[in-house]
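request received
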Amino acid sequence: MISNDMAWYMIIISAVLINNIILIRFLALCSFFGVSNKLETSIGMGMAVIFVIVIAGAASWLLWHYLLLPLKLEYLRTAAFILVIAGLVQFLEMYMRKAMPALYHAMGIYLPLITTNCAVLAVALLVIDYNLGFINTLIYSVSVPVGYTLSIILFAGVRERIDIAPIPKFLKGYPIIFITASIMSMAFLGFSHLFGL
Amino acid sequence: MNRWQVFINGIIKENPVLVLLIGLCPTLATSGSANDGFGMGIAATFVLIASNILISAVRKWTPDQIRIPIFIIIISTFVTIVDYTMHAADPVLYANLGVFVPLIVVNCIILGRAEAFAYKNDVLSSTLDGIGMGLGFTLTITVLGAIREIIGNGTVTILNYELINLGEGFMPALVFIMPPGAFLVMGLLIAANRLLIRKRG
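response:
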């Protein structure tokens, strides 16, 4: 797994390929299956997820190390993180609508969806579990959503082809999509133990 | 809809995982063995029933505009209880489930039932809805775990009881207890549930 004394490029390779958040760690599956039907929406969603996870990861790291640990409030971790993330996303959405309308139109509609995206809370919890320092937290919380974006874009491409392929009737719709994801996951499994990780 | 229908609804016809396709992350991630899946199912069911009861009990005093933050606080309280209880009672299971125990708080099934059912119905119906949906979830995740475990490891073990053991001669297909197996078995289970619903009309 990931630890604080790993080199930065190892953290990136591990988070993007070896422990790919969707295909290997099974996080953020709802949005993965929900919006991957078009390439365009997948890219928008990917960008929004990168944006939110970096901010949420940094905010919860600061919250944990400067508020919860000194005050011995470790048991409030889950509640505090989810509230901070939800509040932050809401706030960002309002700010973006006012200050950056172009960016808001590109990815604003995905922001509320992301609050309940388990990847965001998972990254916030994992950087604490892995005992990462602040710089490594930032590196990790950029690379995890990059892995998300990579697999959602690849998957959207495959799904556009599935739509026009002949498929047995009982597998139409979600079953065939899960089976496709299984084959993609097998491909990503090929990265395991790369560089001894 | 009578109370029995509310209860039975969650298992086949409105099965949260197989039909509504929510709560996928814990289902796929913790179904590497029947025991892990069962533990996850019970933990989520406890949170679901408890939060359904509390949300339904306070629904008359909950202001409409801030209901979602209130739901989240109620849910995360119960998740923290489960987190600490499981850590003390079954450290092995807790280590296997890992980050997915605190992640019950963002399980769409729980917030979804709070919003769609508990906020609009009385306490008794909400309890039954919680039990039914929780059972549907637990059953799905345990069956998924059992299928993966039997093909990938040749055994099925729940709570230290070994239910099935195919013995030494069995050659397990390891891929089924690895991530690809979860997606594959899940896809086939969705197809099977569809056939079941169609047959019953």
